Amino acid sequence: MLRHLLDMRALDADTITTVLDTAEAFGDLAARPIKKVPTLRGRTVCNLFFEDSTRTRVSFEIAAKRLSADVLNFSAKGSSVSKGESLKDTALTLQAMGVDAIVVRHHASGAARQLTRWVDAKVLNAGDGGHQHPTQALLDLFTIRQHFGRLEGLHVAVVGDVLHSRVARSVVQGLQTMSAGVTLVGPPTLLPMSADAWDAEISHDLDPVLGKADVVYLLRVQRERMREQFIPSIREYARLWGLDRRRLGELADHAVIMHPGPMNRGVELTADVADAPNTLIAQQVTNGVAVRMSCLYLMLGGEQREQPAAGDGRSDLSAVARR
Ligand code: CP
User: Fold this and answer.
1) Which carries the bigger pLDDT value, residue 230 or residue 136?
2) Which of 55, 109, 236, 275 could cross-link 131 (Cys pair, CB 3.0–4.6 Å)?
3) Considering the entire predicted model, what is its pTM?
4) Probe ligand 1: pick from 47, 54, 291, max atoms within 8 Å of CB?
5) Separation CA 110–CA 130 (nearest Å)
């Protein structure tokens, strides 16, 4: 049984494989006329979102409902947070109502981990500041494995605003754990100072990277997190690091394009490239439901097991893979 899902660094290769294999079974369920199983009947999952979301919030809701859990959707807008209630008191209020799992998105890095210190419920990190977004990384790994049949030995170019991206941190760690190679591509201002320690190749020029990539993974330009001028202009960004029809022609025939969403058409990629046949963007969204079902199932399903010592969640996630 999984305890918390906070950070991709806590997941070893066996654990990731278990999550992806379990998601495959739940993916098959989506093709059936009745898409529901009774696995989490009687359990309550709360989506606690302090930041906007479409894909993550909705797919967690669908995932929990397909597992027959009761679902509460809490958004900071319209709640007592606007009257000054803290994250801790909000969490304790939910705990007092008996929720079994909290799916949390928060603007502060570390908010999900902090929550684990206050509540007994399982905590799933749905994005904390610029830190981590583990279920996004897991659904990306699932989508790549589904397409290529493997992860090991593939080469993924992660392009754009790495600096502000919790998705980049999470997906790069997941790819490396699964023995895939990574090149970080972007202007020096949008790569973190610590990028040298990421164990990835680095390029400030997109064109030379395109021909050797199996996957081009485009990151959203996060203008809402930029407090300074990181790029000369959006037009300049699109010209130098955007994927357009000419650059599409430079890709290997087998290469695919991914984007975690929401995408800025005309910035990270042109509108026609977004709809090209070798994009897996819609598939990523579809797979998000199965992967989140897998995470909820592995964390809440099955018999109760011994509680782990307080820590980073590694012990529980790894324990699943050993079973
Ligand atoms: N990829 C992602 O996290 O999208 P949302 O912000 O819509 O959830």
Assistant:
1) 136
2) 109
3) 0.92
4) 54
5) 9
